[in-house]
Amino acid sequence: MNSSGVTPGADDYYSALPLMDGTDSQSSYAVVARRGDIFLGIQLSGLIDGLILGLPGKTYLSARVWSARNQELAEQLDAQNSAINVVGLFQQLLALDGAWPNFSFDKLDGQRASLGIGLFIQGSLLHQPVAVLSQLEKPDLVRKLVDYVIDKVGPEHRIARAKAAAAWLFTKIKPTLDHLREIIKHGQIAEQTKKEFKATVEHALEVVAPYPQQLKAIYQKHMQADANAGVE
Questions:
Q1: Are residues 115 and 104 in contact, defined by beta-carbon separation less than 8 angstroms?
Q2: Nearest to residue 220, comparing CAs of 185, 184, 187, 190?
Q3: Quick check: 9 pLDDT over 50?
């Protein structure tokens, strides 16, 4: 990231998107709104199976909204826009949570105010990962989160295009999607392994043999077949 808070060489959709640091992470929040030197950003938090929240058959896509002061970013943006950074007394006195009255922040200290938001997806992350993946592969869900935040802050305070913020956030969920694909692949291979192992031993249950070794060999065979298919 360069001194303007912009990631060089990024996609046109989000190349000018301001970014903000979190408590333990750099450039982890897409900044979508501003009031003086107070900025509001959003980042994705992860996926939670709905069963944990009392909603079996659903998955929760969570995000974090973050309000923080950043005088350096304010000056950089004003310089880029050839503007004079004139912040009225009212905005100087704004609290981190008070700047965004339509949000009820659940964490607040002298450095930041934040809260969790999210939406539910049809399908269980644990038991229906294919259904969950098919929905997450579309950027529409991430865009809904961004649109919600911008609607809450009001268009007069928006400083980033919803499309740009959603595109950037979508790049951040890709590792999660790749991990989910790996889980699905190994689940499918495990099912193939169990079927083949059952066909091999179901009529010889009282025959002494190194069955764990056979099971492992079958699993490795299917894993290698999958790897070879990927190469082709």
A1: yes
A2: 190
A3: no
